[in-house]
Amino acid sequence: MLETFERAARQAGFTLDDAQRAAATRLSRLGTELAGRRRLFAGPPPRGLYVWGPVGRGKSWLTETFYEALPLPRKHRVHFHAFFREFHTVYARHRRERNACDLAVAELLGDCRLLFFDEFHVHDPGDAMMMGRVLTSLFERRITLVATSNYPPAGLLPNPVHHHMFEPTIKLLEASLDVVEVAGPRDYRGERPAQGARSRFETGRYLGPADPRQLRAAGLEPPTADERRQLDVGGRTLTARAVRGSLVWFDFHELCAERTSTIDFLTLADRYDTWVLAGLPRLSSTDRDAAQRFANLVDVLHDRDARLHLVADAPLAEALHGDALPLDIARTASRLRLLTPA
C-alpha cells in the first residue's frame, strides 16, 4: 500500500516528506493486518492509530488515502461534529436503558470493523465524559480505530479546570492505539494549487467590507430587506438575510453571536451547499463563544465541502488575531487561507 501513497502524492504534485512516509508506512502495515484478518476471521483486531500534528501537514490526506484504498467493506468515516449529532439523537432513544451508550454505538456502527474518526478534539467537558464511554464501547466491540487530531492524546481537553476528567480516556487511547506524529516543516494546506481549486470549499471567496460593487464582482448580489427568511432549525428559528436555492446568506452576529450549536450548522449544511457569511469582525472584538461557533461553522463547511464566501471587516490575518480566541484557531486560519482573496 505504500506505493499507493507515493502515487497519490505524485498526482497531487508533491513528494512524501519523512514524517508522512513514516505515517504511510504504519498505515500500510495496518492495511495489511486488516486484509489478513478479513481472510482469517479470527484473532484480535489490529491495533489502531492516532495520527496527530500541526495543521496542514497531511494527516487527513494520509488517512483518507488509506481509507479509500483499503478494500474493506465494513469501514466507516465520520467527522467529530457529525458523529456527535448522530450519537446524541440515537442515544436519546436509549437513554432509559442501563447500557444506552453501547446500544447507540451498536445502532450507529453495526458490524463496522474500521472506524476513521477525523478531526478528533475534545473541548467540552460533557462531550469528554461521553467520549470516554463511546471509546470503551468501540474497543469492546473489537473495532479498529484510526483518528486524526491537532493534539496529542495528553493535550485533549486542555482546560486545566477539566483536564483531569479526561485522563482515564487519555490512558485508554494511549493503551489502545499507536500514536503517530506527523509534524514535518511544510504546511501543505497553505500552498495553493498551481491550477484551479481542489475542492468546492476552495472556490469560496474572502472579501473585504460589504461594498456592493465588490460583492457583485464576485457574483454575489447584495440581499434586499424583503429577502430575509426565518428558518426552522431543529424547532428553533434562525434568521437568514437571503435564501436563493442552495445558497444561504447569514450575518455573523445573527448566526454566531446567538446560541446556535454545531448541530444547527450541520442541519443547515444538509440544506445549503453555498454560504455567504457577512460582517465577520475581528474575532478579538467579539466574545469567545461567538468566535468558537464561527470556528465550528468553518469545520462543518470544510468537512461538507460547501462553498463559503466570507465578507469580513479586516484582512484574514487581522480578523483571526488576538487574545481569547478558540483553541483551534490555527486550524480555522489554515482552512480559510484556502479561500480566494479579494
UniProtKB/TrEMBL annotation:
GO terms for biological process: cell division. Keywords: ATP-binding, Cell cycle, Cell division, Nucleotide-binding. Coiled coil: none annotated. InterPro entries: ATPase_AFG1-like, P-loop_NTPase. It comes from the Bacteria. Transmembrane segments: none annotated. The keyword Cell division applies. PANTHER family: AFG1-LIKE ATPASE, ATPASE N2B. This is Cell division protein ZapE.
